[in-house]
């Protein structure tokens, strides 16, 4: 359905996106993962025709949209990272306004507004001003606006940032339902690995403006199939202990979430003995040790050297 | 486009505070500074003449625009003058009058002149009636002569740089209306920048609405809100304070159109050159106050003698706005005679809007 070919965007002092290739099949949910500054939002702006690329192409149903952006705009709904709504209008008025600028006919608009209010669960608050809404409700309405003109493709740029777990679940379920029931294609970016794992069929991982890994969840996890993840919880984390762990020859990656440490090591290597020995030497009390199969988070750490939320 | 105008008006109805506040402040400033020409000076009067005669004198005296004579008892009149709540009090007699005063004021001399003129005329008429054989016929003749002057005198003058008429009421009304409208328009235009930063503008770009419609919708709203404000202020002064627009009230409502067009363009130009809304908020008062001072909104531009300041004023929309409004009212100029300031304002508008929109389009956010 959508194909991005060698897409690049260079600003004066910065190469924001460097030769990105990705594709979306009809009805798929694809995740775009990356830490802050990875180039996700610029890639989204390029795909949605808001920004012109320095080079490369975006092709919709085998036709370039660069010269004729209306093609993608007519079938695209974008949920921006920020709450792009009028705070002094009610939920219904916001939907009516954005419906009008999409040139939805009056009778049809009322039907669509009602339908969207049902989808996002704000029917009972439709007459309330948006500024009185909670963060989660605003996020839901932010999504609702992108659904008004019944798009075939939705691009969601971190739609669950800064909201409570209940609203987050509601949004995830809504996205899943839209994908399954209405066969809407979704490009979903997030900081939350579990959201992407839950929603997406395929994943692209971006860092420093480039796609550094792509594939299904299983394919990406298989990058670390020969490794294991060891999570050590300590009473008080000492710098000396950390330094000694880093110096171990088989440790491929180490991340710290005080008072826990996660190590990526080859499966075949038995490192436990060393861990306890070093703890004894540095007088560090180990509370627990968990050996796990690497998660997407671990793969991400392995690939970028950073936590997703860094 | 209509959707954008609709949404903006909806939001104005939800939050009309700023609009109402600037309108009220503008009315208050214009009223206070032009007060002397909007209100009549009250003059308390007493007399021992028969009531019918006193009423007839008062009726004649009150035909003037400047003073309102009110009959009271002697004690009250003297108390008012002594307390300073009246600048002068008058004792009316058949063939003379007495003025009471506590201190010398500008209005005291004017009241004195006015009363003298009235009594000279009154005594002349009385003398004619007394000398006539038929006093009733003489009275009718005098009324007829007063109604149909022997000579119809009309005065015409060519206005030039050294001759100008000053109407303090209209000066302050026009000056403050044009000045405050800059705030109203500018702080609505900058909402485009805010919408860009919030991502609303991106949503509009991705819709079926074209960019031209987006700009026209937003700028049309800003124009309309400025227009409504100025029109409202003019209506309040015309019908509330009875300000004389020299029969050109409708014309003034048309002539504010080119001025507001240039102000909308100026605002989009400023929005284009600033980097943040904070910068814009700091720049607008600076620009508007200096424009008002140099453009003759606070005081008549005719009193400025510096060639440098006068040259600078040629690049300021308020100068031409004031020229239009004062030209149409005080000087009674026709549209064709006002074509020059109209053209300048339109030219300024087109240039600044062109540059402003281009700068807006080039900025990242």
From TrEMBL, chain A:
Which PROSITE patterns does the UniProt entry name for this protein? ABC_TRANSPORTER_1, ABC_TRANSPORTER_2
Keywords, in A-Z order? ATP-binding, Nucleotide-binding, Transport
Entry's InterPro entries? AAA+_ATPase, ABC_transporter-like_ATP-bd, ABC_transporter-like_CS, DrrA1/2-like_C, P-loop_NTPase
Where does the secretion signal sit in this chain? none
Q: Which residues form the ABC transporter domain?
A: 2-233
One GO MF term, please? ATP hydrolysis activity
Q: Which domain of life is it from?
A: Bacteria
Asked whether the UniProt record includes Amino-acid biosynthesis among its keywords, one would answer no
Identification of the protein by name: ABC transporter ATP-binding protein
Q: Please tell me the species this chain comes from.
A: Cytobacillus praedii
Lineage from the top down?
Bacteria, Bacillati, Bacillota, Bacilli, Bacillales
